[in-house]
Design a protein that fits this description.
Blueprint: H1 2-32, H2 52-60, H3 63-94, H4 100-110, H5 119-128, H6 135-159, H7 163-171, H8 176-184, H9 189-205, H10 208-213, H11 222-227, H12 239-268
Length: 275
């Protein structure tokens, strides 16, 4: 009896968590499909199927360009973060040198600073290099918070790989680059997917740097574009358009998680050495 009560309580807790997490997105979908006159009517099930809000999002502002900007910045951040993270993780996880622990703690400490604390310094650097209102400024600034946790996670994973693989590769004359790319990279796949997905989500949702370092609509990313959607007057917000834009922006992240979730889970317990 206690076992069934425990299972019931567990499933009830899971249901509450799922409802709490999914309901806002579900209600945003319902609201995005309503006509403006019915937007503030409370409906818990789809009653209207009006696509005008989605059409208006792309018609009234360069939202397709904003999506492309977000994709370009996020993908470049992931690629650079993983490249630098893997190479740094090899040095920090497999090479013995003095001050390695201190360096790891310093990398972790960088990620503890809030974005607003480094905003003014980053702004001066962006202006100094002539990158203001340029997507490259977003890529470089986003890496300040994606590289620390990427390096930390990959270093921890790298330390857990069997030494026998590296020793065998060294005996065969493999260089460190060959060891990283051909020996360790296949085993690092679950960690790469996990850190890459987290870096993508952070870059995709980042707002403060994107608002500060971009000026024109054609250079803005989707979070800033949504925040700057305005109606016919200054005090009138087109909530239907905002809901539609929010749904459009959220769908790619949900799809990525659904695509890679199996590989993340299945790869975490994959063995590297067979007895």
């Amino acid at each position: 009896m206690k076992r069934y009560l425990g299972l019931g309580a567990f499933y009830l807790l899971v249901a509450v968590i799922i409802f709490y997490s999914v309901f806002p997105f579900y209600y945003a979908i319902i609201s995005s499909l309503k006509p403006p006159s019915q937007l503030f009517r409370v409906d818990y099930f789809p009653v209207y199927w009006v696509w005008d809000n989605y059409i208006a999002v792309f018609r009234e502002q360069p939202f397709a360009t904003n999506i492309f900007n977000s994709v370009l910045v996020s993908v470049s951040v992931v690629a650079l973060s993983l490249f630098l993270g893997v190479t740094a993780a090899y040095a920090l996880g497999r090479v013995q040198f003095r001050g390695r622990g201190t360096l790891l703690l310093a990398i972790l400490a960088i990620s503890m600073f809030p974005a607003v604390a480094v905003l003014s310094g980053m702004f001066e650097l962006i202006r100094l290099f002539g990158l203001y209102n340029n997507l490259l400024s977003l890529t470089l600034s986003y890496m300040t918070f994606t590289i620390p946790f990427t390096v930390w996670v990959l270093t921890t994973f790298m330390r857990g790989l069997p030494k026998e693989l590296e020793e065998a590769a060294v005996m065969d004359g493999a260089t460190p680059w060959i060891i990283i790319t051909r020996v360790f990279m296949p085993l690092l796949w679950p960690a790469l997917v996990t850190t890459g997905l987290l870096a993508f989500i952070q870059a995709w949702n980042e707002f403060l740097f994107a608002l500060t370092f971009t000026l024109t609509n054609t250079q803005r990313t989707v979070p800033v574009a949504i925040a700057l959607i305005t109606g016919a007057s200054q005090h009138e917000l087109p909530w239907g358009n905002i809901m539609a834009a929010s749904v459009i922006v959220t769908v790619p992240v949900v799809v990525l998680v659904l695509i890679f979730q199996r590989r993340i889970v299945s790869g975490l317990t994959a063995g590297a050495v067979k007895g």
